[in-house]
Amino acid sequence: MPTKIAAGNWKMNGTRAALEEAHAIAQVQSGDAQVVICPPATLLTSMPEGLATGGQYCHPATSGAHTGDLSAEMLADAGASYCITGHSERRTDHKETDADVRAQTEAAWRAGLIAILCIGETLDQREAGETLAVLSEQLRGSLPDGATAETLIVAYEPVWAIGTGKVATPDQVAEVHDALRDQLGAEISLLYGGSVKAGNAAELFALDNVDGALVGGASLKAKDFIPIVEALA
Ligand code: PEP
């Protein structure tokens, strides 16, 4: 059985004041679901004991002359056990390619981190009927060989649904997740991401091949994130 996972991506949000939210999230009764928060790297070492954490990106190299970057080893050293790779905001803002994402995923594995590999289509691609082909190509280009349920989580995040308030319909999510399950096998956890909130989480989690969510905006406040965890647990 794939592990159920509720992962929060805080993006570039949160100063030390946000640790209060992390402490509240750490208290949630999550049953057999794993809760993960990916805060800004500046907060990693201050996150509460017992709350699993992740980075939002890692550089492929272990160390070196890469001003402003962070290696997977640094994230692990700061307490992270997960790392998001291939988030669409990184693909857009930093022009990260599938090859870059593949190198980052390999780096995450090298450091012992579980990669949360994000894939997703744009609205134009969906409207052109290219969704499954685009996702399959992204996986082919960005997923290194040798993935296991212990090293990889895949997050389907339609670009048009991230931070927009537009959620993919259960039928749209089911079509993609069923195809991903066929492609990736029975054990890899498959998360949906894109405007997940308390009001829509249960309907998404009821789908056969949805093992949890990667949550942006609604993970910033414990009062918004905890009901999502509870819907999964
Ligand atoms: C995300 O950034 O991974 C995400 C899903 O954001 P939101 O939940 O805000 O759409």
Automatic annotation (TrEMBL):
Active site residues of this protein: 87 (electrophile), 157 (proton acceptor)
Broad enzyme group: isomerase
GO BP term (any one): glyceraldehyde-3-phosphate biosynthetic process
Keywords: Cytoplasm, Gluconeogenesis, Glycolysis, Isomerase
Coiled coil: none
Signal peptide feature range: none
Family designation: Belongs to the triosephosphate isomerase family.
HAMAP family per UniProt: TIM_B
Protein name: Triosephosphate isomerase
